[in-house]
Amino acid sequence: MTANAPVDVSPAAGTGPLPSAAVPAPPSWPWRRAALLLSGAAQLITISALVGVDPPPVTWSSVLLAIAPAPLAAVAAFAPAPVNRLAVVVGVLVLVAGIARAWPHTGLFFVPALVALCVGGAKLWRERS
Q: pTM above 0.70?
């Protein structure tokens, strides 16, 4: 046998079928993942602003934006089908309420996450039908 001789790579008899190709991700997955990353980044900015040297006033909206968006986006991205649809709706409501109240301080940072979550949610609802 030489170093350049072809090697037999066929499966042995009785070993079963070869593993199939991976199932492609649904069309909403990149958008839901983007919502998770964007809301996590905006949440870190909000937390940094609240504990910074010159913090904005601590209101219910700033606390809501500091606590809720990333966990809700994570549930929307990774939970099974009935739960992730509910998480998308609750996440959009939380982001809209927080952005509307905290617009001048840190609410603006959550707009890209809101857009990504809305698009991902729309695609998720379309996947259901």
A: yes
